[in-house]
Design goal:
Protein name: Calcium-binding protein
Oligomer: single chain
Structural class: mainly beta
Strand order of the largest sheet: 3-4-2-1-6-8-10-12-14
Distance between the termini: 28 Å
Order of helices and strands: EEEEEEEEEEEEEEE
Amino acid sequence: MNNQVTFYVATAPLLRVSDPAGITAGPGCTQTSPRTATCGEIAGITAIHADGGDGDDRLAAGADLDIPVDFNGGPGQDVLVGGTADDHLTDPDGWLARPDRATFRGLAGNDVIISRNGGYDRVECEGGTNDTVTADVVALDQVTNTCETINRG
């Protein structure tokens, strides 16, 4: 994995972003170590948008994060994990071979997951009562029975 970015609640009520490979604080964030940044109070944040860019990345919302995330994996073999809110997870290219673990995990919330990308993916929705997945044909994408609506291409 190139980047393993996690968004989570730090010392309440602050949002923290971390990546073991290192992170650079952007506008509105404060660098707290070479691998972490704090990005304001949770109450003022209505959504989190992140793009993994090139490479094999993992973008994840911490289990304690109740803010909607919009994650785009970008080119590469990515893993996207939502949090407890209604999340949007998409990846433009999928994996080159059948993955041995979930490439999309919706967790709680009513999530929208788009894995129709011509590559291999494994989708797990978990919590929520109205998860929607747009996936490739069964030969490419494995989708668990925890997803309420599955649209195949």
